[in-house]
Amino acid sequence: MAELLKKNLDGGYDLDPKHLAKMVKEDYERDIREMFESADDDQLLALMGDNVSNKIRKADLKRLKGSQPQGFQQTRGKGQTVRADKPSEKMSTEEWREMIAKKLEE
Predict the structure, then answer these.
(1) Number of folded domains in the chain?
(2) What is the DSSP code string of 61-85?
(3) 5 Cβ neighbours under 8 A, 6+ residues apart
(4) DSSP line for the chain
(5) pLDDT digits over 6-34, tens only?
(6) CB–CB of 24/43 below 8 Å?
(7) Is the dihedral of CA 67, 68, 74, 75 positive or negative?
(8) pTM for this one?
(9) pLDDT recorded at residue 34
(10) How, if at all, do strands 72-76 and 80-83 pair?
(11) What number is the average pLDDT over the span 88-97?
(12) b/e per residue, 21-53, with b = 16+ CB within 10 A?
């Protein structure tokens, strides 16, 4: 910031120190973003450390859980989604086929 303030004064500009601080912050954030974007996944995890990596994982899990359709719970096993709003009903193969045929007609 001191370097930018000196350039400001040497150039005859009268920029507010708050404005200069904002410029320095934006430059710093851009540099950090570029560093993260150029890193591969392992480098990125090493740069951030375990605490930050875990926070990001938790935030992603919250976001993913929140984006599930209404009436569905988490999947269990091999991608089997469980309905939360209906109790499980056993039906014969014939009953199942009839149910599917009715839904297709709708």
Answers:
(1) 1
(2) HHHHHHTSPTTEEEEETTTEEEESS
(3) 17, 20
(4) -HHHHHHHHHTT----HHHHHHHHHHHHHHHHHHHHHHS-HHHHHHHHHHHHHHHHHHHHHHHHHHTSPTTEEEEETTTEEEESSS------HHHHHHHHHHHHH-
(5) 777 777 777 777 888 888 899 999 999 99
(6) no
(7) negative
(8) 0.44
(9) 94
(10) antiparallel
(11) 81
(12) eeeeeeeeeeeeeeeeeeeeeeebeeeeeeeee
Name the token pair of 53: 């990596």
Question: Cβ(40)–Cβ(48) under 8 Å?
Answer: no
Look at residue 13 in the predicted model and tell me its pLDDT. 72
Q: Which residues pair with 76 in a beta bridge?
A: 80
17-21, 73-77, 102-106: lowest mean pLDDT where? 73-77
| Domain, as residue range, for 85 | 2-105
Angstrom distance (rounded) from CA 74 to CA 72: 7
Cα dihedral across residues 91, 96, 98, 103: positive or negative: positive
